Amino acid sequence: MKKNMKEKLKKVKLLILDVDGVMTDGRIIMDDEGREIKNFHVRDGHGIKVLQRYGIEVALLTGRLSQVVKQRAKDLDIKEVYQKVYNKREVFEKILKKHKLSAEETAYMGDDIIDIPVLKSVGFSAAVADAVEVVKKSVDYVAKNKGGQGAVREICEMILQAQGKWPEIAAKYEFTQYI
Predict the structure, then answer these.
(1) 3-172 falls under which CATH superfamily?
(2) Beta strand pairing status for 29-30 and 141-142?
(3) What is the pTM of this model?
(4) pLDDT digits (tens, 9 = 90+) for 97-107
């Protein structure tokens, strides 16, 4: 991990995630009755839970409105869910005020152009491997994994490593530090 990136990650107290294309693979499946189905990766969810256990808050910030997102947030004990947001930077600034955080104490992961204003505002910015090119060029880090396929977990682990919490996690789960 580059030193500059590690220094940015050390400051993170809040991780904000886009949903479609980041926590999911971006596909939206609807049944005949219009009920929406999304695929979430279990390892992303576990990464979020571990991050929370070590004091890092997580929020969701998405342009769509979906009951599935509300349910997934509930499953992961994510209290802050902002849906149907068209001006993400405006909501981001409200989140900062609510938490009394500076932009440098936040990280954001996105995948599309609607995310760029927030990606340029946070202390640490990341994109999924299959993000649009202009987003990839706007971030501190491009994940090795695609959206809905472990990209969120990758960022969770990076934050925990940079903050020196990874050895304790490795010991708890009885594995050697591998990253």
Answers:
(1) HAD superfamily/HAD-like (3.40.50.1000)
(2) unpaired
(3) 0.94
(4) 999 999 999 99
